[in-house]
Amino acid sequence: MKYRFPLALAALIASFFGVIFVLQAFERPPVHSTQNGFRGTGMLQVANPRSEAALWARNQVPPAPEAASTDGDPASSIYENVPLLGHLSIEQFGRIMQAMTEWVSPEAGCNGCHVEGDFASNANYRKQVARRMIEMVRHVNSGWASHVQQTGVTCYTCHRGRQVPEQVWSAAPEQGARGMAASPRMQNRGEPSVGLTSLPHDPFTHYLSGAENIRLQSPAALASTAPHSVQNAESVYGLMMSISGALGVNCTFCHNTRAFSAWNESHGPRLTAWHGIRMVRDLNNTYVGPLRDILPAERRGPMGDALQVNCATCHQGVNRPLFGAAMLRDYPELAAPAAR
Ligand code: HEC
Ligand code: HEC
Ligand code: HEC
Ligand code: HEC
Questions:
Q1: Which residues line ligand 3 (CB under 6 A)?
Q2: Which long-range contacts (C-beta less than 8 Å, at least 24 apart) are formed by 99-104?
Q3: pLDDT class for 6, splitting at 50, 70, 90?
Q4: 320 CA to centre of ligand 1 in angstroms
Q5: Percent of all residues in the chain with a pLDDT value above 90, rounded to a whole number
C-alpha cells in the first residue's frame, strides 16, 4: 500500500516523457517511400504528402506578363546608361524592369535599385549589384547547361520577392567555445545548415568558395600516408547533409550507401550535383564574392564577406528548383549575353 503512490507517479512521469519522445522523434504518418535503386539495396526516397503539399504551394512561379514586341528603336536610343540591356526594344526593356521589380524588390519598387527621379544614375549600390546579377544569370543559362539544362534560372529562382535571397551563407566567425567544443572547422553547434547535427556547420568556405577535394575514402587499405583526416571526413559529411537538406532528398537519391565514392553505383543526379558544385564555386568566386567591395556593412557576413550562394539558394528544399518550371522561356533577355 505504502509504495502504490510513488509507482503511479513514476508511471505517469514515464508516460509523459514517452509521449514527448514519440512526438519529437517520429514523423506523423502517412510517410511514403519509393524505391529508386535495385531491390534490396535500400535506395529509397522517403516523403510525407503533408509536407509535400506545403512545399508545392511555396514553389509556384508568378505568371509571366504578355511577351513584349521586339520591334522599334532599341532602348539605347532613349536611355543613356544601358550597357547590358540597351539592345532590347523599348517595350522589352520596360517589361524586364517590371519583372525584376516583382522578383527582387516588390516593396521598394523601382527605387529599390534606382535613385528617385534619376534612372540613369549608378548611385544606388543595388543597381550595380543588379548589373552583376544579370551577367551572372546569363552566364548560368548559357554556360552551365550541364547543371541547369534548358530549364535555366531567373532572378526569381533565388530571390522569390526578397531583396536578399532567404538561403545564403557567409564564412563563420571563430568560435568562442573552448575545449572539446572548439574546432577550427566550427562544429558542435547543431546548426540547421547541417541538419542540426554536430558536424562542421560551415563546410561552404572550404568546398563552395574554396575548391578543396570532396574525398574521404582512401584508395588503399591501411594506407600509412592516408591523405584524409577525421576533420576532413566530418566536413564532407557536413556538406553532404547540407546538400540533402537543400534538395529535400535522402543520401540515396545520389549514392548507394554501400560505397559512397563509387560512381558506377551512383544515380544520375549525382553527376548533375557534381557539375552543380563546380557551378556554385564559379558563381561565388566570379560574381558574388567580389561584390563585398560595393556592399554596405550590414549586407556582409560577420567576417566581412558577401552573402554567398549554396545549393539551397536556388533549390529551397526541392530537387529541381520550382519543381522544374521552365520560367526562363518567358524571359529570353536573361538567356544569354547579347551578341553585339
Ligand atoms: C533589381 C534592380 C532594378 C529594379 C527593381 C529596377 N531597375 Fe531599372 N535598371 C536596373 C539596371 C541594372 C539598369 C541598367 C541596365 C543596363 O545596364 O543596361 C536599369 C536601367 C533603367 C533605366 C534606364 C535609365 C537610363 O537612362 O540609363 C530605366 C528607364 C529604368 N531602369 C526604369 C525602371 C523602372 C520604371 C523600374 C520599376 C518598374 C525599374 N527600373 C526597376 C535595375 C533595376
Ligand atoms: C543564384 C542565385 C541568385 C540569382 C539567380 C540572382 N541573385 Fe541577386 N543575389 C543573390 C545573392 C546570394 C545576393 C546577396 C549578395 C549580397 O548582396 O550580399 C543577391 C543580392 C542581390 C541584390 C542586392 C540586394 C541588397 O539589398 O543588398 C540585388 C539588387 C540583386 N541580387 C538583384 C538580382 C537580379 C536583378 C537578378 C536577376 C537578373 C538576381 N539578383 C539573380 C543571389 C542571386
Ligand atoms: C544530390 C546528390 C548527392 C546527395 C543527396 C548526397 N551526395 Fe554525397 N556526393 C555527391 C557528389 C557529387 C560527390 C562527389 C563530389 C566531388 O567529387 O566534388 C559526393 C561525395 C560524397 C562522399 C565522398 C566520397 C569519396 O569519394 O570519398 C561521401 C562520403 C558522401 N558523398 C556521403 C554522402 C552522405 C552521407 C549523404 C547524405 C547525408 C550524401 N552524400 C548525399 C552527391 C550527393
Ligand atoms: C543557380 C541555381 C542553382 C544552384 C545554385 C544549384 N542548382 Fe541544382 N539545379 C538547378 C536547376 C534549374 C535544376 C533543374 C535542371 C533540369 O530541369 O533538369 C537543377 C537540378 C539539380 C539536380 C537534378 C535533380 C533531378 O531530379 O534530376 C541535382 C541533383 C542538383 N541540381 C544538385 C545541386 C547541388 C548539389 C547544388 C549545390 C552544389 C545545386 N544543385 C545548386 C539550379 C541550381
A1: 214-217, 236-237, 240-241, 243-244, 247, 249, 251, 253-255, 260-261, 269-270, 273-274, 277
A2: 99/64, 99/65, 99/154, 99/155, 99/331, 100/130, 100/155, 102/62, 102/161, 103/62, 103/154, 103/155, 103/156, 103/159, 103/160, 103/161, 104/130, 104/155, 104/159, 104/161, 104/162, 104/163
A3: confident
A4: 30
A5: 67
